[in-house]
Amino acid sequence: MKRLFLNSVSSLKHYSSSASASNVLKPGDILKQSRIFSIAEVEDYSKLTHDHNPLHFDLECATKAGFTDTPIPGLLVASLFPRIIASHFPGAIYVKQTLEFRAPVFVGDDVVGEVQANSIRQLKDKFMVKFATTCRKDGGAVLIGGEATAILPTLAVNGIGHR
């Protein structure tokens, strides 16, 4: 019954936090969003990408692979990173992403995506920013780690202080 209910749940919570008091991105600043994925989103992702891996739909296949349930595709979970960046910096250009998948995500898990500015370099009228990227289960376990690079049109953070 719980799984049937969670299959229809899709949630996205916005957290914006910054180490600085201003609305200008600085190294060390962290931006977050929380998300609970639904089975409908996994199905939509599968249709869009043509990724029909039974691991994500067939419990028997998933348990044979060592999972306790059918995992959500890792790239769907990692889609939190460009979403966080673009929602705070409209017009951002995603240049690079590395990913390390450390633990599975299942329907109903509360996942927090986090991007932390590591370095900022000015390029004429734009900014090249390297971010540490992390997804965690609510409670701290690291699910996905990596690094992203994006070209931002400005360092003015859109949405600071919204929850």
TrEMBL record:
GO molecular function, one term: hydro-lyase activity
Domain MaoC-like as annotated: residue spans: 38-126
Superkingdom classification of source: Eukaryota
One family name in Pfam for this protein: MaoC_dehydratas
InterPro entries: HotDog_dom_sf, MaoC-like_dom, UPF0336/Enoyl-CoA_hydratase
Organism: Salvia divinorum (Maria pastora)
Protein name: (R)-specific enoyl-CoA hydratase-like
Listed CDD domains: R_hydratase
